[in-house]
Structure formats: C-alpha cells, structure tokens
Amino acid sequence: MKPFSAQIQSLNPETDHEKISFLLSGHVFPWDLERSLEFALFRTFAVPSISGLLAETGEFVQRPRKRYDDTELILFEILEHGMNSLRGKRAIRRMNSMHGRFDISNDDFLYVLSTFIFEPIRWTERYAYRPMSEVEKQGIFKNYLELGRRMNLKNVPQTLQEFEEYNIRYERENFRFAPSNRIIADKTVDLMLGFYVPKWLFGLGRPFVFALLDDPLRESLGIRKVSAVRKWIAKKGLFIHAFFHKISREPQQPVLGTKRKRPSYPEGYQIEELGTFPSGTGSTSG
After folding, report:
1. Which residues of the chain, if any, have pLDDT below 70?
2. Where is this region: Disordered (predicted)?
3. In this structure, are residues 167 and 111 in contact, taking their beta carbons and an 8 Å threshold?
4. Cβ(217)–Cβ(44) under 8 Å?
5. For residue 211, is it within any domain?
6. Residue 64, domain extent
7. How many domains does the chain have?
C-alpha cells in the first residue's frame, strides 16, 4: 500500500477534502496538527471579544480541561466520521446550538475558522518534518469552507489567498491586550503543560510555550519577551521531534481523537453533552 502522504497527492481537494483532512490528522501529521490547533486557540485568545466571552462563561477558568475536550471531541467527531454521517451531523448541530446561545459576530466566527486552516499550514512549515503540499493545503481549506457553510457563516472568503488575507487583516485590527486575554491564556498553558509534566514543573515550562508565540500575539496576551536561549531550546526540541517523525513509518491505524481516554468523560461521552451552555438553559439532544 502506498504511504498515506502519497495517497493524498492522487486526491482532488474539491471532492475529497474530507478524506485528505482525515489522512493528514490520523496518519500523516497526528501530533503536529493537534499541537497546531492548540496554538490556533492561543491566537483567538488575543482578541478581547473572544477571550471576554470565554471568561464570562467561566468554563475556561473553572473547567479548562472539559472545555478543551469538548472542543476537540466536536471537531474530531466531524473529522473522523464525516459531515454527512449521523455522528457528524449531530456534532455540527450540537456546535451550532451551543454557538447560537451567545452573541458572537460573524467576523469572530470567520477568524476562528481561519486559524483552523492557517495554523496547521504554518506549523508544518516551521516545525514538522516537511511542509504541506498544495493538495493538502487546499484539502484543509475546502474542508473548513464546507464546515463554515454548515455553520451558516456569511461572507466566507472563497480562495486560500483571500482567506489568509482576511486572517492577517483581522489580527492586525483586533489583536490588543485585555485582562481576559491573559486569564484564558494562562489557564490554557497550564492545561497544555499538564499533558507532559507534573504541576510543580509548570513554572519552568511556561517560558518554553511562550517561546513559540510571535510578538504581536505575545504582546496581546500580556506576556513578557522570552530569552533567545529559551526560544532556541523550544525550537530545537521540535526539530528533534520532526527528525524522528521523518525516519518513522506513518501509523497504519489512524490516530483517533474520539477514542482517546479523557478525564472529563471517564465513562465515555454523548455528543449531546458536549459544549458550553449558559446556566439554566440546559442542553438539547440532536
């Protein structure tokens, strides 16, 4: 059987975007793409209208692991089962129901969607064993374009270049410091570090996470400059990971986010219990 990377090159992003996205996430770049989406979340925290809403709900402050798991599980349900599958439709319905209970602007929705496209592309260019091919970039783009349509988003840029221009312009106009930015970012950094090190090492680990943030993002989160030595160490660690990834075989069985044990749901989960809902509204089955 051909390597999954080679299989992708024979696919058409217009019609096979879901398969391309699944192969990238499950076989080609499972670790890299998950890390890139974590840093995509960081970018959304630099926008006061987004971080303010997250702080207001209290979920990221009080239950950051559940909020993280809910976000991942909804996205993985859609990615791993397909948007037209029963589970995929239930996950999209659940996501739209959750978002519909909050006052979120179309521009903020578009920006968050854009980070899910461009942060994986940029991460692989900087830190993975190879950058994405044009087929892979277009596959991810077309996949999220279709998800945006099912989220009923308006004025979605229809080409990769136009959407990247939107992403860059939005950040230039909306990145600015607010206390809620730093509150949400700190909770998320501690959550990420908890995947790898005990709590008593969080203070040592935070600067190495911050070392991967660009200056506009770092300043909008209220984070001090990180030393060049720490930046070098952080990036060297990722380069070492990329080297071992390059000489390893792609996993033959897909790495599935929906099958991973999660402390938020030790007995398993139902799609209809995922997500953040305002107090007193309850949740609805889909």
Report:
1. 276-286
2. 255-286
3. yes
4. no
5. yes
6. 12-249
7. 1
